[in-house]
Amino acid sequence: MTEIIQHSVISVLIEDESGALARVVGLFSGRGYNIESLTVAVVDAEQKLSRITVLTSGTPMVIRQIKAQLKRLIPVHDVCDLTEEGPYVGRELALVKVVSSGERRTEALRIADSFRARPVDTTATSFVFELTGSPEKIDAFIELMRPLGLAEVSRTGIAAIGRGPSVFHLKKEPV
Amino acid sequence: MTAAERDAGTGNEALNGAEVLLRVLDEEGVEVIFGYPGGAVLPIYDALFKQDRIRHILVRHEQAAVHAAEAYARSTGKVGVVLVTSGPGATNAVTGLVDALMDSIPLVCLAGQVPTKLIGNDAFQEADTTGITRPATKHNYLVREPGTLAQIVREAFEVARSGRPGPVLVDLPKDITVGKAPLTKPALSRLQRLRHQGGPDAIAIARTLEAMKTAKRPLFYTGGGIINSGPEASDLLRRLARKTGFPVTSTLMGLGAFPSPDPQFLGMLGMHGSVEANMATHGCDLLIALGSRFDDRVTGRVDAFSPNSFKVHADIDPSQIDKIVPVDVRIEGDVRDTLEALLEGWGETPAPDLSTWWNQIASWRSVDGFGFTQDMTPSAIIRPQHAVRRLYELAKETGRDTFVSTEVGQHQMWAAQHFQFDKPNRWLTSGGLGTMGYGLPAAVGAQVAHPDALVIDIAGEASTLMNIQELGTIAQYRLPVKIFILNNHYMGMVRQWQELLHGSRYSQSYSEALPDFVKLAEAFHATGMRATHVGELDDVIRRMLAHDGPVVADICVAEGENCYPMIPSGAAHNQMLLGPDQDSEAAGLTEEGKMLV
């Protein structure tokens, strides 16, 4: 029986309380689930809710388990599998430092322009580019920068949201 | 009128956090706490000293406090409560918490913590208790504000008992329990959203009923969820089994939900289950899992588990469904409600003709996989199975309500195989975690909950030593617990696996330098007894049962006895090892299986 490994982007709406993120991360590590990227920030200060976006992978049975296990966590309000629920927009932000001079420097700037990456810090020998896009786009940009003096990369991991008018959360709950 | 008098009864008296805590425990119906004092919980012990509504049982080790509370909870259906101090008090409790998590036992563990200002400073007896117990509990809390104390404790009880029950820990910094705290009124629970809305899905019930009406070889596979759901669920199961005429098998944790002596009961299934239960599981065409979770001790080789059946899984915890074995129908919700819906849907449908299936079951049953030969010459060595069977028969003769706890290992399996239960909540064992040392403190908890009942710990000599200090607790509270040790001088289950899988190399499994259990009993103010030959067995059991105080009975049994039937890890249900003479390779004992536990 060959198992198909699928990638899933899962959004988790969780109460912003001490240790909440540790519960989610601990669940993944404790049960041997994969985290390819994870982002978290408060999205509703009034209701004290954070949104976590996890990019994970596994067999369809494992993905179902991940969602079911997440829903068991007491502070979790809702879990949404964006990959399953329909089209979504997934974006990542990267800061890419390139240290080079001469022709390599000009080439780096030229490619950055075509990727709509903005230099947010410039010195005579370096750039820091800011770039947003899908993880694949960022991967491609980093690969192109490699021979041009790529020195350091910082990436946020994917933040994602479903396309269209439907929303998955923010039902008013008694807190 | 003083301010204090004026405020009395309005919930606004100037109480400290410890007093608020005890008020909330009282509101929650707590009658007993199992605990051990220490620096960080001194304010709570002081508040306990000043009241007389809640009883405190002083254990001798925090792990034992948790096991005692587990047995208290399991045997009463109430939430068990534990009180431990910070640092080592909390870390000692961790084994018990994981045990309760695995077996879905509702507990609230109150742990002391260093004052809020010292948290993170490596203070004396500081441990990151919420960090350590996060994966060991269903949920845990650190109380940071006095204003949240009452509500957090109330919520802890709600989390512990709602849905699939489990242990909850509340970490209580000392400044919170010493300082003033408001006894806030119960607030609307934020847990409403976690509750399962309404009954089981009507379509799922209809599909199940349809399958039940056409099945030729149906089987109910019941688990600990039936026990957790309350005695009513056991009653509904019995009625449904009567109406349908279906056979019933149970997991280790579910024993007692259906009466073991009943002809419709096939016994426990799984690694050391009965031949008929395992063969029926393998051969059935409809498997209805009720509050059971397809544990690896039950399934054996997953891809060969019940290969030709239509599967229905009813569980209160949706994450258990499709976790290990994919099923055809999923029913989420309290198994009591599911049973009720099935019973109602079945209505007055006559029981289908299952005679072919029952004839098949009868032929499997005739194998008698639990069989053993006891030489009845008085000087003959005692077979452990015979000892358990006689214990059951003689305990039954007393007519007393009987609770049985066990440690973990061969004796536990023999107890499950040979002791019969006809009521739920009477069987207290560590199923999921397999915690050696569970049985003695569990007997303490059961006896505290049921002072007039007969409480027996069926033990192994190795396991029971892991919490033997609880003989002190037994002495202090004059608990008439009977500790029935099947003493084979080995960690028997380890020895059995070493024999079958590791070329009889008995690495570290011999119980060297054992204490004299009779003298040990006496040292702890209990009565010690010993049976070395079968001729002495009945007399020792009778004297033990008749004695009104605690007894340690050292039953010297055959050293090399193995527990059969056995489905070796990695094998299927129709590949049971039935006895020592069988070729182990034919029974699927493979190198691959050796890697599994």
UniProtKB/TrEMBL annotation, chain A:
<keyword id="KW-0028">Amino-acid biosynthesis</keyword>
<dbReference type="InterPro" id="IPR027271">
    <property type="entry name" value="Acetolactate_synth/TF_NikR_C"/>
</dbReference>
<dbReference type="InterPro" id="IPR045865">
    <property type="entry name" value="ACT-like_dom_sf"/>
</dbReference>
<comment type="function">
    <text>Catalyzes the conversion of 2 pyruvate molecules into acetolactate in the first common step of the biosynthetic pathway of the branched-amino acids such as leucine, isoleucine, and valine.</text>
</comment>
<dbReference type="InterPro" id="IPR019455">
    <property type="entry name" value="Acetolactate_synth_ssu_C"/>
</dbReference>
<protein>
    <recommendedName>
        <fullName>Acetolactate synthase small subunit</fullName>
        <ecNumber>2.2.1.6</ecNumber>
    </recommendedName>
</protein>
<comment type="subunit">
    <text>Dimer of large and small chains.</text>
</comment>
<dbReference type="InterPro" id="IPR004789">
    <property type="entry name" value="Acetalactate_synth_ssu"/>
</dbReference>
<dbReference type="InterPro" id="IPR002912">
    <property type="entry name" value="ACT_dom"/>
</dbReference>
<comment type="pathway">
    <text>Amino-acid biosynthesis; L-isoleucine biosynthesis; L-isoleucine from 2-oxobutanoate: step 1/4.</text>
</comment>
<dbReference type="InterPro" id="IPR054480">
    <property type="entry name" value="AHAS_small-like_ACT"/>
</dbReference>
<comment type="pathway">
    <text>Amino-acid biosynthesis; L-valine biosynthesis; L-valine from pyruvate: step 1/4.</text>
</comment>
<dbReference type="InterPro" id="IPR039557">
    <property type="entry name" value="AHAS_ACT"/>
</dbReference>
<keyword id="KW-0808">Transferase</keyword>
<dbReference type="Pfam" id="PF10369">
    <property type="entry name" value="ALS_ss_C"/>
</dbReference>
<dbReference type="GO" id="GO:0003984">
    <property type="term" value="F:acetolactate synthase activity"/>
</dbReference>
<keyword id="KW-0100">Branched-chain amino acid biosynthesis</keyword>
<dbReference type="Pfam" id="PF22629">
    <property type="entry name" value="ACT_AHAS_ss"/>
</dbReference>
<comment type="similarity">
    <text>Belongs to the acetolactate synthase small subunit family.</text>
</comment>
<feature type="domain" description="ACT">
    <location>
        <begin position="9"/>
        <end position="87"/>
    </location>
</feature>
